Amino acid sequence: MIHTPTADRRLFRLAGLLYLIIIACGLWSELAVRQPMLSATDDALADRLFEGDAIFRLSLTADLLMALCDVALAVLLFAILSPRGPLIAALATAFRLVQSAVIGANLLLPYAALHLMQTDPAGPVSVARTLMELHGTGYDIGLAFFGLSCLCTGWLVARHPMFARWLGILIAAAGAVYLAGTALRLLAPSLSLAFSPAYLVSIVAETSFCLWLLVGGRKARSTSS
Fold first, then answer.
1. Sign of the C-alpha dihedral, residues 136, 137, 138, 143?
2. Which stretches are transmembrane (predicted)?
């Protein structure tokens, strides 16, 4: 008989909860706050930054929470996946931790844009906009490390009895999308916008992984000896 201890399922669900927080914070900060601000006119952007827009500050806090949860998630996923391959699991954890560090350090750029406009309202808003755009580039650089983490994680998930093989393949595909997106941002930025729909693969993969963790993984199967 193959059994999954209750403690293991609790570990899965805790990892799923952290993943849910990460997805919610990341998508909200990027799609609901930063992209609309960057698409606004210079005057509108300057006004929001000068006023110390509470939503913008909240988005920075959400990104920080996302990075903190990602550190905890990296450790939990190592505990879950390491039996399938300790070395690959360690690599997945290391790459994920580096991405979290990049995201945390990268938050200085949008905060600098906010600080600049509040201390010098007459200053060029183009500098603040450039800082926010550089934050996007830094985010994509961090995704290169996350992409490698996803490749390792996908390989482990595909071999884990508590996950479906297709889920591991989907996570690995998300990693390939992240790596391609970073490469385009650095080598051919003019193609980045056209590549954006590919990130739907990553959203589906990470959401599926999150939900699978939340339900505690695949039910234990019985086998006869």
1. positive
2. 12-29, 64-82, 94-117, 137-157, 169-188, 194-215
Give pTM, 2 decimals.
0.88
Give residue 193's identity as a one-letter amino acid code.
L
Kind and range of the H or E element at 209? helix 199-214
How many residues are listed for the chain in this entry? 225
Domain residue spans of the chain: 11-214
In this structure, how many other beta carbons lie within 10 angstroms of the beta carbon of residue 105?
A: 12
Q: What angle do CA 170, 137, 144 make, to 5 degrees?
A: 35
Radius of gyration of the chain (CA): 20
The string of pLDDT tens digits covering residues 111-148 is 999 988 888 777 788 898 999 999 999 999 999 999 99
Q: How many CB atoms lie within 10 A of CB 200?
A: 11
Q: Quick check: 38 and 132 in contact, CB under 8 A?
A: yes
Among all chains, which residue has been given the structure tokens 């500098």? 127
For residue 210, the number of C-alpha atoms closer than 13 Å in the C-beta half-sphere is 15
Contact 195, 125 (CB under 8 A): no
